[in-house]
Amino acid sequence: MRLTELELIQTQMVARHGIRYPTEGNIQDINGLLKRLKPFEELLPLWMRNYTLPYNRSVAGELAVAGKFELWELGVRSLARSGHEKRVMFLKDNYRIAHTHVKRTRDSAIAFVDSFFENPEDVEYIEYPKNTDFLLRFFDQCARYQREHSFGLKRESIEFSPKDLMAVQSACAFDIALYHHKHQWCSLMSMTFIHSLDYLDDLEQFYWIGAGYKINYEMAAVLLRELVDTMMGRVNGSNTLAGNFFFAHAETTLPLVTLMGYGDRSLLLANATKAEINSRGFRTSILSPFGANIEFRLFKRKSGAEEFYVQILVNEKKAKIPGCERVFCKLSELEQQWDYYLKPYDFQKDSPPPTNNSAEEVRNANIQGDKKPREDEIAQVFMPNAESSAVYEPKATDTPLSIPLGSVVELKLDYICATSAAEVEYLKEFAIAGQVSVRDMLSLANRQRQPSHSPIRAKS
What we know:
By secondary structure, this protein is α/β, with parallel strands linked by helices. Helix content is 41%, strand content 10%.
């Protein structure tokens, strides 16, 4: 089937919010590192000696200006893909805009709306309540997920390097995302270290919200069901929606694309070889960056028998729909393909809502979406071989990791690449602050820490 034979009658999109400011936790970690380094000013790069963060807690976790522009541009491109030469008029019967209770998702929706609609002031926003958002924050409403995997991973922790060094990575990520700066925090990291952290991030996300556990992505069945029901409603005339837009989190978009079969479900292991790391198909920097989106486009055949086709764009890129293996698939075929998740799968049974005790655990964990700082901006800027397509296809020229995860000697900090006794003494203090041993942390005699020989698994 060709696009010229089809007429677009409905588009639905599930989008992650745009670039945000660091959370309070990010800010505390970076400020904590700066405070501990203060006594050693003479060893620090000049820019770091009187450095203060260019953001504060008043904007912690909120959508940044760059993020607003990111979603505004997404609206412009979505409008053009829908065949409109100018902004459209918002009518309640034709369009629906929804977001979670978290402010950055509402602000993302507003930015998108400003470029998509001629009358943005008339748009009615649907905000799903904090404690009963089964559609976009299903990860909050599933006690089994929180108990078996989310909190389990948090307890077990996939940390291969000190907390302080992860703060450097986080600061670099936000320097790039917010200000396009690479000359301060990012200058402390070598490409080897960046590649190591990129795999570390993928490893964590794979078992947190990716294909590592079925419950991670099966929770998204409630959202897939809503999307398909909306398409069926347009087909049978029970709704007249031309556009249906949801704004949420990485914990929403990544499980959804995984459920539908995008990305690689092959297990990621802590002891993976260089070749395995290099050729992995699961890359969060490609599947779930800031502004990540999945667009469901419903088409009607222009002539002949009345048939309806679906095209799915992942991050605005065309890709064959897994299972159907075509860019345009019949809606009826997808119904059959996803039948288990559309009908017999019982979210309430498989993912019962939190009890009073588990609800308290959720509150204590302060889950707001984006449970960890997102460093995918680093990978996108520094890695020349990063693919922009929806499904990563490894290249022979990709640079493999040249050291095991956790070997941080590649950081270009003089006081970390120490050789003198005095510097080693300082490093002991640095290691204690990061809650790791000097032996585990350093490679002063070109020795390297050995990676784990088992996959990262949560406690059951």
